[in-house]
Amino acid sequence: MTLYVPGRLLEQIWAHAEASYPEEGAGVLLGSVEGEERWAKQLLPFANHFAPESRHNRYLIDPRDMLRAEEEAERLGLDVIGVFHSHPGHPARPSEFDREWALPWYSYVITSVQGGKAVESRSWRLTADRQQMQEEPLQVQQDQLT
Amino acid sequence: MSVIRVPTPLRPYTEGQKEIQINGGTVGEALKDLANRYPSLKPHLFDETGSLRPYVNLFLNDEDVRELQGESTPLKAEDRLMIVPSIAGGQ
Lengths: 146, 91
Fold this sequence. Notes:
The structure holds 2 protein chains of 2 kinds.
Chain A: E1 2-6, H1 7-20, E2 26-34, E3 37-46, E4 59-61, H2 63-76, E5 79-88, H3 96-101, E6 107-114, E7 117-126, E8 133-136, E9 138-141
Parallel strand pairs in A: 1-3, 1-9, 5-6
Antiparallel strand pairs in A: 2-3, 2-5, 6-7, 7-8
Chain B: E1 2-5, E2 19-22, H1 27-37, H2 42-45, E3 56-60, E4 63-64, E5 80-85, E6 87-89
């Protein structure tokens, strides 16, 4: 079980995390799947729709944005493979709140932002019994020079 | 028959099917048809009282069914329903 992310997409995830700071920033990963391996191909950064006073430690993606993500995935022949969000001033590991809201199957990429700078991203999946988030290897792919 | 599109987290419960032809004159009947054909999907759509779970959103041809007539919303043969999960979290 591995999530492969092209370097240019990780840069976009970090840019969205830094632009959202000190609030949490979130979005959706589109990609392809083969068995337990996933390849991120596109990402869709979205606005944080949680109540403004809680956006420093909570995020909510509007269901209409999720609908757009599903439609975009369908248009591109991809799947929604996961969700990314940032933890301003906190480590790149899931909180209890993250686990409670997590859906099975998705890859949850969490980026730690310290002092406005993204420093680390790690990926997690909810276990089948919903009891914990298990880390999956996040492998950054070097972009091909053309 | 209408078509329902299943998001990736629920596809393990629909034998990997992305789009499924469903029977039913309303959104509620179509969901029950879906749940009867894929029983392991049922607890992910409905709670113990049979109500649709709050994190399950349904869009009928891009309109949120909560803004239409909910589960009583009529379905036509060419209609397309999408199940869209609510996504939230935080540190």
